[in-house]
Amino acid sequence: MSAPNPGGIKTIAIRLDGETHSVLTMIASLRDSTITDEIKAALAAHIEAARTADDLAARASEAAEEIEQEAAVRKAALDSLFKTDTKSATRRSGRSQD
Q1: What is the predicted pLDDT for the residue at 53?
Q2: In terms of CB atoms within 10 Å, which of 7, 25, 72, 76 comes out highest?
Q3: CA dihedral in degrees (43, 45, 51, 55; nearest 10)?
Q4: Could you tell me where the DSSP H helices lie in the chain?
Q5: Cα dist. 5→2, 8, 9, 13 in Å?
Q6: What is the mean pLDDT of residues 58-65?
Q7: Within 10 Å of residue 93's Cβ, how many Cβ atoms?
Q8: Phi, psi angle pair for 16, to nearest 5°
């Protein structure tokens, strides 16, 4: 059994109305492509447009700050949970404090 690959290929399913599917099928056929390739190209263009969108960049900055704050709170909780004085931690590890 192989290990999971979190960065590997992911499969998604989308539902399209009949007209959209027909048009997408025609575009793929005219381009000698596949529906999957056309969807991938559309998603790549959408992601690239999102990268240059000012409002999205501002939201990303806010989200990054929230992540940092949450990480700091969680780290403080861990530190508090496993709080030990330097001498007892040094004794357990067998190192001197000199």
Answers
A1: 86
A2: 25
A3: -90
A4: 18-30, 35-51, 54-81, 86-93
A5: 9, 5, 8, 20
A6: 91
A7: 8
A8: -120, 145
> What is the distance between the alpha carbons of residues 5 and 86, in angstroms, rounded to a whole number?
40
pLDDT over 70 for what percent of the chain?
79
pLDDT at 14 over 90: yes
> CA–CA separation, 59 vs 65, rounded Å?
10
Question: Residue 31: CB partners within 8 Å, gap ≥ 6?
Answer: 38
How far CA 23 is from CA of 16, 84, 97, in Å, comes to 11, 66, 73
Amino acid at 42: A
Kindly report the average pLDDT of the chain as a whole number: 86
Query: Could you give the CA distance from residue 13 to residue 41 in angstroms, rounded to a whole number?
Result: 16
